Amino acid sequence: MENNSLKYGYAQALSYSNAIAEIFYSVMKKKYPLDREIKSYFRKHDECGSKDRFVITESLFSLFRWYGWVKGKLPGGQPENSLKSKKFCVGLSAALWLDNQPFAQFMEMLYDVAEVETTWLQVSPEVIEDKIKGLSYSFKIRKCDVLDLIPEWFKKEISSDDDLVAMIRLLQKRSPVWIRIQNYSQELVLKELGALGVDLCQHKMVSNAFKVSAGKFNAKDVEAYKNGLFEIQDLASQCLGLVCEVRADQSWWDVCAGAGGKSLLLADQMKGQGRIIATGNRKEIEKRATRANFKNIQIEDLDKVILSQDSFDGVLVDAPCSCTGVWRRNPDLRWTSFEDVCERSACVQKEILEFACKKVKEGGVLVYATCSVSVQENEGVVTHFLKMFPEFELEDFIHPFTGKSTGGMIRVKFDPDDCDATFAARFRRK
Ligand SMILES: C[S@@+](CC[C@H](N)C(=O)[O-])C[C@H]1O[C@@H](n2cnc3c(N)ncnc32)[C@H](O)[C@@H]1O
Fold first, then answer.
1. Is the pLDDT of residue 206 over 70?
2. If pLDDT is split at 50, 70 and 90, which confidence band does 1 have?
3. 119-123: long-range contacts, CB 8 A cutoff, minimum separation 24
4. CA of 421 to the centre of ligand 1 (A)
5. 261 with 225, same domain?
6. How many angstroms separate the CA atoms of 149 and 208, rounded?
7. Of the segments 5-19, 129-143, 289-303, which one has the largest average pLDDT value?
8. pLDDT tens figures, 338-384
9. Fewer CB atoms inside 10 A, N or C side of the chain?
10. Looking at the structure, do residues 243 and 378 belong to the same domain, yes or no?
11. Could you tell me if 135 and 50 lie in one domain?
């Protein structure tokens, strides 16, 4: 019996570690997003149940989150049998230990192959300096520095005012889930999620933003979600809606609407009235707007809006960017982004602002936003824009989190509100 369970445990650990290795090396080689590769793997491997998916997915996130420290131990390419590769098992088990993953049986198997000293490995300490000691003692991974947890090129992208080490410490934490309650449904949403054992914590300033502080749920199974009463949306994104300061009698253009997250947010703030033209992923926006019963969102093709005579009270450019502000949520991006990603993003951002600003009415508002912490994508693009378009000026607004005056720009950097990083600038056309 014991033998059988050991054999089963080994077979399961082998299938986990092979899946992790396959996906990890594929992401590193192709530079595709991790979540996309995970989805594609599970589509091909429908034998994986929900627990298997959880272990594989979580392990991959740990591996990318701590890659900067464990990369020296990992083999250069995918090992044929990952549970026979001591190097792979050292690297993977160290990452799982650093992240305090609860997969005891799987980790035991990895420790065994890795020949690590397990005496002190019950729990990974919270403090990063103590983690470094554990790595050195048990995994023989030495000379770890906090700065190794990000790529070298990133250091020149941030402001000299930023405390890089403090920023990286925050990057190593896991992202919480935030929801945005819409359609005035707080009571209903809190009741249903509460009954599912989910604890929610309301943000002190953004009244529709709630952080999931305990419990788990699959939104697709929740009635309130199916009825459009809430969306999963990071607090940083919710903050942008407040920077726009929309009114119910206005018309807005959401230029880079993507899947429509901000369009929905603005539509809710406009109480289902006014008009929002969204240029993005038609199918996705339509699905979400229908679910929320927002009749004030109109989905259009980008070229059609650019060529039209339309102008708007407000234009939101939630620009494509390097995504350095979501590195905590997507740790793979630190290692798969090209080192000129901020420079290339800044060029695209300038181009988008150039055509988008022409559609702002006289006296109207333009909001420029990124989920980047790069100076050249944020303040750099703003300076360039003001030089090219002197008919616009920065307009002061109140910081949605602090209630203080901003001078026209905000930079949200993970803490103290436990959200992604974001940047926003608000301009007024004179
Ligand atoms: C930061 S995302 C927008 C997220 C979206 N606003 C939301 O809240 O879900 C940027 C979007 O800009 C789109 N995009 C990329 N290049 C663009 C361009 N040249 N003009 C307009 N949109 C562009 C991308 O497809 C992406 O969906």
1. yes
2. very low
3. 121/97
4. 17
5. no
6. 34
7. 289-303
8. 999 999 999 999 999 999 999 999 999 999 999 999 999 999 999 99
9. N
10. yes
11. yes
Tell me if 352 CB under 6 Å of ligand 1: yes
- Specify the ligand 1 atom closest to the Cα of 320: 10
- Local structure of 397: helix, strand or coil: coil
For residues 95 and 100, give the distance between their C-alpha atoms in angstroms, rounded to a whole number: 9
Strand-strand pairing, 209-214 and 178-181: antiparallel
Please indicate, yes or no, if residue 171 is contained in any of the structural domains: no
State the pTM of this model.
Answer: 0.95
Clarify whether residues 227 and 244 are in a common domain: no
pLDDT, tens digit (0-9, with 9 covering 90-100), for 140-155: 999 899 999 999 999 9
Cα–Cα distance list, 229 to 208, 232, 234 (Å):
11, 11, 16
pLDDT at 5 over 70: no
Residue with tokens 């740790």: 331
Cβ of 421 less than 6 Å from ligand 1: no
Taking CA atoms, 147 is separated from 25, 150, 153, 154, 415, in Å, by 23, 6, 11, 10, 19
Measured in Å, residue 99 CA sits from the centre of ligand 1 at: 32
| C-alpha span between 258 and 414 (Å, rounded) | 23
Write down which residue in 232, 250, 269 finishes a domain. 232
User: What is the domain range of residue 224?
Assistant: 179-232
- Supply the residue whose CA is at minimum distance from atom 13 of ligand 1: 256
β-bridge pairing 199-202 and 209-214: antiparallel
Taking residue 75's Cβ as centre, other Cβ atoms within 10 Å add up to: 14
Beta pairing class for 312-318 and 360-370: parallel
CATH number of domain containing 300: 3.40.50.150
Structure-block tokens of residue 392: 């616009």
Number of neighbours of residue 127 by Cβ within 10 angstroms: 10
Last residue of a domain, one of 144, 169, 193: 144
* Token pair in block for residue 323: 């995504």
CA distance linking residue 95 with residue 60, whole number of Å: 9
**Intra-chain end-to-end CA distance of the chain, in Å:** 80
Strand partners, 61: none
Mention every residue, 6+ apart, whose C-beta is less than 8 A from residue 387. none
Distance CA 59, CA 50 (A): 14
Atom of ligand 1 nearest to the CA of 257: 6
Q: Of all atoms in ligand 1, which is nearest to the CA of residue 316?
A: 6
| 158 falls within a domain | no
| Per-residue pLDDT, 413 | 84
- The predicted-structure confidence for 58-84, as pLDDT tens digits, reads as follows 999 999 999 999 999 999 999 999 999
* Residue of 322, 386, 395 whose CA lies nearest to 353: 386
